[in-house]
Amino acid sequence: MALPPGFLDELRNRISLSDVVGRKVTWDQRKSQTAKGDYWACCPFHHEKSPSFHVDDRKGYYYCFSCQAKGDALTFVRETENVGFMEAVEILATEAGMEIPKRDPRAQQQQDRRALLAEVMEQAVQYFRLQLRTGRAAEARAYLERRGLSPEAQERWEIGFAPEGWQNLWDALRAKNVPEDLIIAAGLAKPSNKGGKPYDTFRNRIMFPIRDARRRAIAFGGRAMDPNDNAKYLNSPETELFDKGRSLYNHGPARAASGREAPLIVAEGYMDVIALSEGGFTASVAPLGTAVTENQLQMLWKMSDEPIIALDGDKAGIRAAMRLIDMALPQLEAGKSLRFAIMPDGKDPDDMIRAEGAEAVQAVLDQAIPMVRLLWQRETEGKVFDSPERKAALDKALREKIKLIRDPSIRKHYGEDIKELRWQLFRGNRSGGQGGTFTPRAKQSGGFRDGARAPWRGAPAGPASTTRASLLTNADERAFAQMREAVVLATLIATPTVIVEYESNLERLDCQDADNALLRDLVLRVGIDAPDRLREEIDYNLGPHALENLMGLRHVAISAGARNPGDEETARLVLAEEFAKLESARGLDVELAEATDDIRALEDEAVTWRLSQAAEARNKAVRSESEDRANYDVADNGVRLNREERDSFGALLDRIGFAKK
């Protein structure tokens, strides 16, 4: 409706913004200067520890320097009370003693009717509370006591009882001259199909009043006392007051507690919310008999940027969490998300608090996981990905879910997190030689770099293994492999666009050097999906010394693969040669080991000694190769030996009967 000119200005002049806001916050006495109308507090719109919410009482304006929330008294009431513009005007006008201009007749009639319905609901609340104290409610009181609800808690939550019978509430309200149409319109009774009197909606049930954000009674939830009742829990039907998809149980108190930095917890039912609140988790709410709706999700995000969904640890609870993910993905905004705390199998928050105390629930809440992790769990748990087709099916399913996210920045970060989880699933469990598997440090939320602090914590205390003084002067089988590994890694880092072509070779590379193993895992993890970020991620995860040490090695510095970054043709030639040498050396090592074992079985010490001399000759050849390649040719086995050593080695093998056939 249109308000007369000047009405809102007069309303703003009559009210004090600091009084309106002061009902929701605690002013910081050290920072505020009340005489100047300058007030500071912790922001009621997000969680913070130091006050950044500023109210200028003289200008009638507030602003949060952290979350950028801003507005006047009307805006504040609308945001904190979750009401429309006209309802906010009515709230402030009532406080200011101003008469609101009459609406058009139809709107005024609707508003008056809603007010009457709210009065009828309040009378029903008081009736049910009185009935809980009667003899007919003895079984209900015993049940509540078994559930750990003291009489004081029952009073706090206004719990009542609907006696068994068809017209108990109906007769009580009619005796107070409550019109029949209002009783039915409030959802407290239903018309009879047999021409008799209307009958009570709730019978032989423990009653939980449901109030809106303004603390008005709008509906009831009833818990059946008869175990054979078709509906264990029954909510009021939807009415002019009650829309279950736009309501939350314990909305008002939870919103106030959340404004005081209490974590917002979303449970499944009334008893869970009551148990959590009584256990100290005062910002607890529950949807009303349905999965969380889009409207309820927006209501939750008005109270907290990251509500914790605390669901029962049974199949139904898990299914509810999965449905919520699908609904929430398109609604995600920067800074607005969900975390999921799944209770142990077969338990709900009420069970845990009664059996193990609030500490046990807090431990579960502390382990709440972000939504992307639960999405990954849903698509991978209990499945085997032992074929390309199954892996492709997983990729397709995840891509379809990520596409639902409208915000491009969030969609990008989800994609990065999924790539990270995929890498861990398909490659992360692979043994990494002496270096092991690369495990990113400071992981907090997702992507390649997640923590506020970088994983690299400074230069290593001692020299890196790749800079030990003399790989060349102490050449042996290990040194040979380390040299080749370093050239391979340097070439791939210099030309990361070819990494995908050598993925399988790189996965089979069992690094002899721990630092090389870390580099190998990073090249696999990052280089395939984000080659342009490879150097940056190496610096971030391993520190700037890693690349400097690698590229500074003598045999790397003279390698064509390292000296020609971006040259894919040269990189392919170098990689093909180096991988071939490594494979050949690995094959020869196996042959020598087998031959040595066989010879030792003959207990011929002289032959064993001569075989070790032949192996030493091979090692000398490897060392000499780096100094003067021109004097050597390639032996049949792929290892570079000079002619004299090759002939001696072959003659020895012929003599002991292990000549290569």
Please provide a written account of the structure.
This protein folds into 4 domains: 7-96, Zinc finger, CHC2-typedomain (DNA Primase, Chain A), CATH 3.90.580.10; 104-242, DNA primase, catalytic core, N-terminal domain (DNA primase DNAg catalytic core, N-terminal domain), CATH 3.90.980; 260-426, Dna Topoisomerase Vi A Subunit, Chain: A, domain 2; 470-661, no CATH class. It is 50% helix and 9% strand. It is built from 28 helices and 17 strands. Strand 13 (308-313), helix 13 (315-328) and strand 14 (339-345) form a beta-alpha-beta unit. The radius of gyration is 37 Å and the shape is elongated. The chain starts with 6 loop residues before the first helix and ends in a 5-residue tail after the last helix. The model is unreliable at 430-475 and 626-642 (pLDDT under 50).
**What ranges have pLDDT less than 50 throughout 5 or more consecutive residues?**
430-475, 626-642
Largest sheet: spatial strand order: 12-11-13-14-15
Mean pLDDT score: 80
Largest sheet: 5 strands, mixed
- Beta strands, count: 17
Count of distinct structural domains: 4
How many helices in DSSP terms? 28
The N- and C-terminal alpha carbons lie at a distance of 100 Å
| Backbone CA Rg | 37 Å
Subunit arrangement of the protein: single chain
- Report the principal-axis shape: elongated
**Helix fraction bin:** 40-55%
Strand content: 5-15%
Structural class: alpha+beta
